[in-house]
Every structure is written in structure tokens, then in C-alpha cells.
Amino acid sequence: MKIFKYILSIILCLAISEAKAQYCETLVLKPYGDLYEGYISKQDFKKGTIEFTCNDTVVNDIKTSDILSKYINIRTDNNKNGLLDVVYQDTVFFIGQIHRVIPGKEYRMTCEDGSEKVIPSAKVSKLCKKPVRENVSIFKQSPFLDVIVMKGSVEGEFEGIITTQSYTSGEKSVLEMSNGAMMKFNMSDLALYKKIPNPDYKGN
């Protein structure tokens, strides 16, 4: 049993290392522009706080209202597995990678053709994720898995990949699960969100 736990811990550590190499966030926080590098591992919508994982350290209870900006590292090799962002502005959409988010103000992204786009948050109707390699499962291309808990839910956690975040009335967001099921939900109904390293992620 101890050997099994040891092997499992090694696999998890490798998954975390591989995931962070592919995806890393840098937060800039009020009031002095303090920097944290890692990834948002939990967001509590009721409390208005996040948990941020930096290497082996977890910083708890960061207020979302204190986030000035979030930078996201950019993939440099489109021949490797990964995810692309699809940002919809009404009926127009852009494909590429979001590299900076200023909460409540704008998204900045590098498009597939190399151009830069600055999209006001108020004009974003939905955010989608798509795999770089269409013939490879998205579950082998996403460094992290999304875990959500709905308000008032007695069914516990739902794990998968959020492929659509909709901010338009009447259109649902979508959590794609590994068994092929699609869970549709309203972003406003989320109570808790978590991001966990994906052990099935294949970087190449």
C-alpha cells in the first residue's frame, strides 16, 4: 500500500509539473502590485475569494476584488497538444490564446495569425476552449481539469472541462465530461470552482 501511494504521489507530481509548464498564471494584486505565479486552484463565489497555488505553497482567501490583472503564459509550439481560446464578441469570434485579463475591463489575446486583439469584457458573449489537435481527445490536451459545485446542489462535484462559458441570457455554459456527457449550467449558479492537474494530459 505504501509503495502504491508513493508511485501515485510521483505520478501526481509529474502531472502538476507538466501542467504548470503548459499553463501558468501570474496575478497582480492590490494595493502594491504584489505578484503571485502559479494557478488559481479554487474560487469560492459566495465568499468572493480564490485559492492560489504557487509551486508547493497555497495562498488562501485572496479577494477576487483585489486582482488587478492576470497574465497567462503563451504556448510557443502549435505542434504540441494544448487548448486554444475562442472569444465571441456578438457574432464575431477570434481564435488564439488569451494572455492577459483585466477583471471587469478587458481580455487581451494573441490570435492564430499573430495579431493582437483587445476585447472589452462587456462585449464578450462567450468564451470557448478547443483542442489544438482535432483528432486527439481534449482530455489528453488540457493541462487541467475543471471541477464545479452548483449552488444548493446535493449531488456533489462535477469534473470535466468547461468548453463553453456563456455570458448571454438564454444560453448555457457547458462542462464536457470524460464519459462524453455534456452538463449545461448557468455561470451565475456556480458556488465553487476548482482547477486540478490532469493526470491524462499529454504534452506532445
Secondary structure elements and their pairing?
Elements: H1 2-22, E1 25-29, E2 34-44, E3 49-54, E4 57-63, E5 67-72, E6 83-89, E7 92-102, E8 106-111, E9 116-120, E10 126-131, E11 144-150, E12 158-166, E13 173-176, E14 182-185, E15 190-197
List its salient traits.
204 residues; mainly beta; nine-stranded antiparallel barrel; 1 helix
Explain this structure to me?
The protein has 204 residues and is mostly beta strands. The chain contains one helix and 15 strands. The protein has one helix at 2-22, and strands at 25-29, 34-44, 49-54, 57-63, 67-72, 83-89, 92-102, 106-111, 116-120, 126-131, 144-150, 158-166, 173-176, 182-185, 190-197. A nine-stranded antiparallel beta barrel has the order 1-2-15-11-12-10-6-7-5. A hairpin with a 4-residue loop joins strand 8 and strand 9 (116-120). The longest helix has 21 residues, at 2-22. The radius of gyration is 17 Å and the shape is globular. The two termini are 32 Å apart. The model is unreliable at 1-17 (pLDDT under 50).
Continuous helix count: 1
Order of helices and strands: HEEEEEEEEEEEEEEE
Strand content: over 45%
Q: What's the total number of strands?
A: 15
Query: Mean pLDDT score, rounded?
Result: 87
What is the overall silhouette? globular
Q: Describe the strand arrangement of the main beta sheet, using strand numbers.
A: 1-2-15-11-12-10-6-7-5
For the largest beta-sheet, the strand count, sense and barrel status come to:
9 strands, antiparallel, barrel
Helix content: 10-25%
Rg value: 17 Å
Q: Structural class of the secondary elements?
A: mainly beta
User: End-to-end distance, in Å?
Assistant: 32 Å
Segments where pLDDT lies below 50 for 5+ residues? 1-17
